[in-house]
Amino acid sequence: xxxxxxxxxxxxxxxxxxxxxxxxxxxxxxxxxxxxxxxxxxxxxxxxxxxxxxxxxxxxxxxxxxxxxxxxxxxxxxxxxxxxxxxxxxxxxxxxxxxxxxxxxxxxxxxxxxxxxxxxxxxxxxxxxxxxxxxxxxxxxxxxxxxxxxxxxxxxxxxxxxxxxxxxxxxxxxxxxxxxxxxxxxxxxxxxxxxxxxxxxxxxxxxxxxxxxxxxxxxxxxxxxxxxxxxxxxxxxxxxxxxxxxxxxxxxxxxxxxxxxxxxxxxxxxxxxxxxxxxxxxxxxxxx
Amino acid sequence: xxxxxxxxxxxxxxxxxxxxxxxxxxxxxxxxxxxxxxxxxxxxxxxxxxxxxxxxxxxxxxxxxxxxxxxxxxxxxxxxxxxxxxxxxxxxxxxxxxxxxxxxxxxxxxxxxxxxxxxxxxxxxxxxxxxxxxxxxxxxxxxxxxxxxxxxxxxxxxxxxxxxxxxxxxxxxxxxxxxxxxxxxxxxxxxxxxxxxxxxxxxxxxxxxxxxxxxxxxxxxxxxxxxxxxxxxxxxxxxxxxxxxxxxxxxxxxxxxxxxxxxxxxxxxxxxxxxxxxxxxxxxxxxxxxxx
Amino acid sequence: xxxxxxxxxxxxxxxxxxxxxxxxxxxxxxxxxxxxxxxxxxxxxxxxxxxxxxxxxxxxxxxxxxxxxxxxxxxxxxxxxxxxxxxxxxxxxxxxxxxxxxxxxxxxxxxxxxxxxxxxxxxxxxxxxxxxxxxxxxxxxxxxxxxxxxxxxxxxxxxxxxxxxxxxxxxxxxxxxxxxxxxxxxxxxxxxxxxxxxxxxxxxxxxxxxxxxxxxxxxxxxxxxxxxxxxxxxxxxxxxxxxxxxxxxxxxxxxxxxxxxxxxxxxxxxxxxxxxxxxxxxxxxxxxxxxxxxxx
Lengths: 288, 292, 296
Hints:
The complex is a heterotrimer. Chain A is an all-alpha fold. Chain A has helices at 4-41, 44-47, 61-92, 97-111, 114-128, 135-159, 163-171, 176-205, 232-242, 248-282. Chain A is built from 10 helices and no strands. Chain A is globular. Chain B contains 11 helices and 2 strands. Chain B has helices at residues 4-47, 71-102, 105-120, 123-142, 149-173, 177-185, 190-201, 203-219, 222-227, 245-252, 258-291; strands spanning 56-57, 67-68. In chain B, α3 (105-120) packs across α5, α5 packs antiparallel against α8 and α8 (203-219) packs antiparallel against α11 (258-291). Chain B starts with a helix and ends with a helix. The model of chain B has no long low-confidence stretch (mean pLDDT 90). Chain C contains 9 helices and 12 strands. In chain C, the strands form 2 sheets. In chain C, strands 1, 2, 3, 4, 6, 7, 8, 9, 11 and 12 form a 10-stranded mixed sheet that branches. Chain C has a two-stranded parallel sheet with strand order 5-10. In chain C, α2 packs across α8 (266-276). In chain C, 45% of the residues are buried. Chains in contact: A-B, A-C, B-C. Chains A and B meet through α1, α3, α4, α5 and α6 of A and α1, α2, α3, α4 and α5 of B.
């Protein structure tokens, strides 16, 4: 039998090792991606150039526009719905069978693989509604996909608004809706925004749900929501799966670095907002 | 109440509107189930039990003449998921314990932020990384093509890491402080405390973390497709190439019609049922906790 | 102190975001000016949109032709996508695209009488191996054995002692269809398929990349895609070259097609005529393929 002290020491070393591996993997991936692609990614000719179908030297400009356009449209659809749902769950409903069913469905939606959303969106929006591969089809698919995250973070932010705020508002004779609109929502906004930023990061990185709804490759930036698009993440996959351009490694490396930059920026903003929110709630108190 | 009728009526309309928005999630789940099921019906009807064999020989120009057994890909999904969890779960839980119990307070925040960052990296990027670094490396070490179950498992381990770490951390953090203090006060070492007091107490939460990680692994598509080799064989060895349900769907969906396409939807249906089963498992595990 | 930190962080974030937006705005401007300079050229006779999809073997040619055609006809747009020969044929029949590109003939079950065949070039398929493979010559039986998995080790065909990695194409590929038939001897009644362990690739491009990056691998490519990263091998002692195919000594050759649903009209006709024009056939097609006039 090993002495407890020795076992403890060995365990400590093992845990340091495990933590070290995790951090190592993370750093390795991020440094590799940036190391290989950052120079390409920050080259204006690459960022603002048109993609090539067969020749080298293409850029990713229409893909960036597609990504941003898709993100905007998705939020336009998902944000009001998830906010409404979150308000209902947090402010209007009592826990019961209906809310139980809603929660189970939200959990299920959150767990479904994005490829399932992809083939669902393809059947319903692309084929059944006849929208074709289009931004709008991608946006609806992505909206359903991200509903759970948005709903949960909004509900949490709404719930964390102190009850005293509401009581004060009610005691002034305000209706529930007035209270929600004028008291609860303003206090919950930073939290909701933080959740939205994280969702933006997820939409930007999503590919499996997008390739068969919004599209894979375009040469011109989309203008109408009915246009076929090629969000960056799905183009990265396409470029490496088809490898029709000779310099696809450069394009994928550069695209990946730029995409990672965008996603990390969104996560960073989300954290700042959350931190700001927490500080405001604690009203100048000490925080961790 | 002042202006009771107008305000009350408005309240009712708003309440109904909000309820409608909340029900969209139920509606979406039903719609997804309905459509995936409806689309897979032709394949289920015409193929029957052939769907559950390893005979995968699609016919693109005459889809109904092909044979669409998905067993090899279901096997691929299960093996890569298990492989990913075998690597990712101990690493994830260990990292969570490390962050909460062992890491100096100063670096705890940095670690947590790092894990969040890892969660944010899009799967195409991790897949690209696996394809350009991991596959050649495995090829060099093992003398095979490098594509296969091992490569997919490692990629999946990286992808489930954030889920497992974050949820395990939550489980460990929700334990009462007294538990740790009592154990330490009785003269137990830190390892003894972790092993005999903390981990057993948090085991349900950790189980949920692992199950949800598994759900992520089963559904992961792009990253796996890039490294698993896209072969149609039933594979059991680590360096053999195969496909998963997800990789098959994404590879063939654009080029399939008729029964071929329907068979891919049937694979989606199996995927959906697998994940639903896991979610049910999570519900059961966490409900037990509340009863106790 | 901490508070400042946060504020700085937020500021940095906002600045980066603003920079990105400015860059995008500049990009938009760029795109527009670029667009507005092109129509200054002579006006072409065709306008409208031509959509094509299908074989990745035909794709480089179709894309090249699209660029040239759009330069001559600024009001016309040609969109070409891949997907594989079967996809192109299915989509042109369904009316999703105007032109279905294919690197194989119509099959009986696909021929509904309405599709019009336009042969645009003659192409050869070469068996290629990873540059590390020492074998330079393979017989019909060896190729068949290697691809079906009967031959598992390179030493069996005179190479080093290493396991063979077979790379094949996807189901919708006309190149694969043709290769399975001509090289593996597959027929409708007695299908021969590649080894179960074969890596399936979705295009000529990724086929080349996979063979180039995977040691001990063997695959096949349309001639236009061959470059230094892969090694073509002789088939029954005949080198895969355009000359040998013209002389009828190299057997793995086929026509490339563009299919239309009914006789083409308007811009679609203009585009196909452009592909078949002497200028395009001698300037572009002859580089990697055999111009159609030289075989018919």
